[in-house]
Design a protein that fits this description.
This protein is α/β, with parallel strands linked by helices. The chain is built from 13 helices and 22 strands. Strands 2, 3, 4, 5, 6, 7, 8, 11, 12, 13 and 14 form an 11-stranded mixed β-sheet that branches. The protein has a 9-stranded mixed β-sheet with strand order 20-19-22-17-16-15-1-18-21.
Length: 515
């Protein structure tokens, strides 16, 4: 009679190996933007509440420790577009409101408060970004285009003045001790933005190149160290060469957004940016883009794995050392409406981050708007505050904390290394990625369990290249009950350098340790 093998209570569900011999991309940062909520919060909130928001975003002990912060250089719609942009939280001031006026550096004071707070809390990378040129540089005198303006709303021949304006802004902040590391002069040029309820502008690829090359030319004549970040395309599919797009879609070319206007080409950014030696000299080997409509996987439309693999291959075709930055993301589409502070949308975000890092080899990952007041899945932190006098309530979402599972522990300069033993397909119930940081002498793994059941994982460490042995690791859990809480400390087994850790169902867990 054959006996059933006795069940071992502590037998792990998965054997995972983290191997430092195989390395991938270096991580530059994790971040978020100040648009548009930081202006009213910075102007009208008490110091105590502003400090709490800043600590949640930027501190590693009290919050999620973002290492990048995006500052929106406004176009002046506060004065010009109250009818076109009804929500004052989506309008912005400008430092110069006409061609003749002097600069007024007291403007955007609320944003400036949080920019200073980010710097004071050690945020390493500051990025200035632009949605629209100042309204006095636009064809229609507004901070968003319409059908009549053609390929772009920037006035013909104003590339030089636009570049000079941005350099003046960068110079001012550098003199204040807030030097921007990057200037992103154009945001989502792909979209038509006709009469959008926010500041925005489109640029066909020729217009895009003219702006970038002129900014680069003027930057070279200064002592500013800021680099140009571009093109900030709206979605991954807009980046691809037509050849790679057809591999994904089966036929055709990318035709969304402004491509339908007949005013030029608004696609193939990889080819026209790092595939163009002149433009590549201006922007380096980095492509910045957004992950909108790229966060799901359906039969025949795998945007989590297949699309990101094509993106990676397309970029490496032009430069083996090229790097990809995700510079904006929140949940859009059918899942976007409805504020939800819970764990389900957070797991959706965590899976998106995972595939951006593992399949697209993203070197940076940045959320859209840090604080939101609306009924949508677009904020890390929420408030019901609308205008001066309202209650200044602060509601943290699980999306904040799962981003923290990455941002607090995977610091600039960390290198992603091999993690094997888990499924890599889009519907895998348990996902994992690993990172080693030579400067901090740490190894970190982030696990995403979007299944219902707890998982016991045995983690084996091999050849990390650190100066000693990792003997203990801490497990930080975000789930329905916990917000990035250290749940347990695990000790290496005696016979080998391995650790057994519990990954609760519906959770994101960061396992980290140092020598």
């Amino acid at each position: 009679m054959q006996r059933d093998e006795p069940k071992t209570k502590n037998k792990p569900d998965a054997q995972v190996t983290i191997d430092g011999k195989t390395g991938y991309q270096s991580i530059d940062n994790f971040g978020a933007s100040d648009a548009w909520s930081m202006e009213p919060l910075g102007k009208h909130w008490t110091a105590e509440n502003k400090i709490r928001i800043a600590d949640l975003l930027f501190c590693r002990d009290k919050g999620i420790g973002l290492s990048a912060w995006r500052f929106n250089i406004g176009a002046g719609s506060t004065e010009s577009d109250q009818d076109r942009i009804p929500d004052p939280w989506r309008r912005a001031e400008a430092f110069k409101i006409s061609e003749q006026d002097e600069y007024d550096w007291s403007r955007q004071s609320g944003q400036q408060w949080f920019l200073q707070a980010a710097h004071d809390r050690g945020v390493e990378t500051l990025i200035a970004f632009v949605n629209s040129p100042p309204v006095w540089m636009t064809q229609n005198g507004h901070a968003q285009p319409d059908l009549e303006v053609g390929s772009t709303n920037l006035k013909s021949g104003y590339e030089g003045k636009f570049a000079a304006y941005l350099i003046d802004v960068l110079t001012y902040f550098k003199q204040k001790g807030l030097a921007f590391d990057y200037i992103s002069p154009i945001n989502e040029p792909t979209w038509d933005w006709n009469q959008a309820w926010q500041e925005a502008n489109r640029y066909n690829n020729d217009d895009l190149k003219q702006v970038i090359l002129e900014i680069y030319r003027q930057l070279q004549q200064t002592d500013l160290q800021a680099r140009i970040s571009a093109p900030d395309g709206v979605e991954i599919t807009s980046l691809l060469d037509d050849e790679y797009y057809r591999q994904f879609a089966g036929s055709g070319t990318y035709s969304s957004g402004a491509n339908k206007l007949g005013t030029g080409k608004y696609r193939e950014y990889i080819k026209d940016m790092i595939g163009d030696p002149q433009v590549k000299e201006a922007i380096g080997n980095k492509i910045a883009s957004h992950s909108y409509w790229s966060d799901y996987s359906n039969p025949g439309d795998d945007r989590l794995v297949r699309l990101r693999q094509l993106l990676h291959n397309n970029m490496k075709h032009y430069d083996p050392d090229s790097k990809y930055w995700v510079t904006e993301y929140c949940i859009l589409g059918d899942y976007g409406p409805g504020r939800d502070l819970g764990i389900e949308p957070a797991l959706h975000v965590a899976r998106t981050i995972h595939f951006d890092l593992v399949e697209a080899s993203a070197a940076a990952w940045q959320w859209w708007t840090a604080v939101s007041k609306v009924d949508y899945k677009d904020g890390l932190i929420y408030t019901d505050f609308n205008e001066a006098g309202d209650e200044q309530n602060i509601l943290t979402s699980k999306m904040l904390w799962v981003l923290g599972n990455y941002s607090r522990f995977i610091r600039p300069g960390a290198k992603r290394i091999d993690l094997t033993g888990l499924g890599e397909e889009a519907d895998s119930g348990l996902l994992g990625s690993a990172y080693v940081h030579a400067g901090e002498q740490t190894v970190t793994a982030v696990f995403v369990n979007h299944g219902e059941q707890d998982k016991s994982v045995q983690v084996h460490l091999h050849e990390l290249g650190l100066k000693g042995t990792v003997n203990t690791m801490e497990s930080y859990v975000t789930n329905a009950e916990l917000d990035l809480v250290c749940q347990e400390k695990v000790t290496a087994t005696e016979e080998e350098q391995s650790f057994i850790v519990n990954i609760p169902g519906k959770s994101v867990v960061t396992l980290t340790g140092g020598v």
